[in-house]
Amino acid sequence: MPVHTPHLTRRRFLEATGAGLVLAAGAPTLFRADTGALGEAHRKALAASQLVYVSPLKKDGAESTCHGEVWFVSDGDDVLVVTDATRWKATSIQKGLGRARLWIGDHGVWTKSDAFKQSPSFDAAASFESQGHPAALEKFGTRYPDGWDKWGPRFKDGLADGSRVLIRYRPA
What we know:
Blueprint: H1 10-17, H2 40-48, E1 52-56, E2 68-70, E3 73-75, E4 78-84, H3 88-94, E5 99-104, E6 121-128, H4 133-143, H5 145-161, E7 164-171
Antiparallel strand pairs: 1-2, 1-5, 3-4, 4-7, 5-6, 6-7
Helix pairs in contact: 4-5
């Protein structure tokens, strides 16, 4: 009988290896000066966590039913995420839903628990970042060294050909 090997995802990789370096809390920003929009507790949580959970906000401020846990890097108080250009994180911005709620922490796959909603959170303005891809990718590689051999080329090639986008979440 053949042995089933599950598809390797970033989440499974992190769970299996405990991978990931925590960036220093005082790391320099990539593109802008820190505005101090987040409190110290949020900054510490971002430095310690490997994931954030993201949900676009509807025009009335209600959360979308789309949620997802993703790799991220900080740029001052901003959070940067790379995603497929056809995924809801990107398409929601294209549809004019430029606000999102982010929760900081790792509580497993969001569909199995809403425990992430007990984590520190903040609302943010979401926008595409068209510059600074090399600096952002370098930060991703430092933060996720054990998974970067696989995901680094995917992020870099996708950003180059437009199949992936870099999203900036700036605290509101």
